Amino acid sequence: MSHRPIVVGFPFIGDQIGGSHISAVNLIASLKQSEVEPKIFLHKSNEALSKYLSDRHINFVALDDDVVLRPLRNRTRAQAAFDAVRYPFAVFRFWRVLRQHGVEIVHTNDGPMHATWALPTVLAGAKLFWHHRGDPQARGANMLAPLLASHVVTVSKFAQPSNPLIPLNDRISVIHSPFDHPQELPDREECRLALAQELGLDPRTHFVGYFGSLIDRKKPLRFVEAVHAFHKKNPDFPLVGLLFGRPEKGGLRLDEDAQALAASLGIADKIRLMGFRLPVAPYMRAVDILLVPALNEPFGRTLIEAMLLGTPVIATNHGGNPEAIDHGRNGYLVEPENPSAFVEPMETLLMNEEEWRRISETARVSALASYGVEYHVNGITRLYQHILGRDQVNGRPH
User: Fold this and answer.
1) Of the ranges 32-41, 180-189, 209-218, which one carries the lowest mean pLDDT score?
2) What tens digit of pLDDT does each residue of 211-233 get?
């Protein structure tokens, strides 16, 4: 029996772009139109995400509605109280949007959207598809999702809610994020030389990189300390640490903190703030190593992106990192919250070309074999069909 495409709504704030947004947009762009009709709703339609979508020729619906239930750390108590008063009226507006567009499933991808759209989704008679990409102890994932979500998908085993209010049982699955396989790799030496020239550095300079939002969980300050620990042991080695990313909007200014820390450690000239850059591939190819000092990282995009580009990774043995890195085979895992632990594997990779090449090649081969868009799209689509009672013969992923 044939069915019309499933109408799936994807709400976003739209004021910034992070790994979760890139993963979601990759999914949306790759869905088979014969099976799923995506509808993107943007609260803010003239900011970062709208430009990203427009550049990719992806349509969206502009809500121009600033009522969003954000964590208290990102706003004042007065703002939180004001939004709480306005929220019941927003629920009606969002309910009407869902009904107007015939949305059958609402696929939320971050904390504010989970909280903001859960009630309108249930009231509209649609199914809530909760894509959890965060902390396993997150309050929403453990309290709200078990009560309201038709299905919860996590990006790793680590990210599964640690203490759900009621058991999720068969309403939870693990599906890794989608990653485009690069068809052509930028020339690594050309990228490195171009970066050295941009920064006014000696062409022989080596680089280690941090890629991601400058937020506490990702530990950008530990990255600075790891670079310092390396230089303390290898003072004459030409190495510079590059921080690619921006602070969270309304969050701590960890860019300024990173600069201040580097200055206090005497390595101000060894740390550079690079901001957010797209496309990322030329920069990720330019660095010799990606350092991932994060804690509670559910399943970082940059780690897999680096592996696909053949850039070796040294990551903390924490969160979802061990699900991707096999220590000593396709990367290195080190003790969390210990910047000095990065030094030995950094020395191995930077001073042993044969070992660098072995890790690079093994990482790329393993990532190509394990992470693809098609697997992700098929898995998500089967779950859409499952929660609407349109299961296919092959069943659903777990």
Assistant:
1) 180-189
2) 999 999 999 999 999 999 999 99
> What's the pTM value of the predicted model, to 2 decimals?
0.80
- Report the C-alpha gap between 138 and 319 in whole angstroms: 14
pLDDT at 393: 46
Question: Strands 332-334, 239-244: parallel, antiparallel or unpaired by DSSP?
Answer: unpaired
pLDDT at 392 over 80: no
Q: Report whether pLDDT(92) > 70.
A: yes
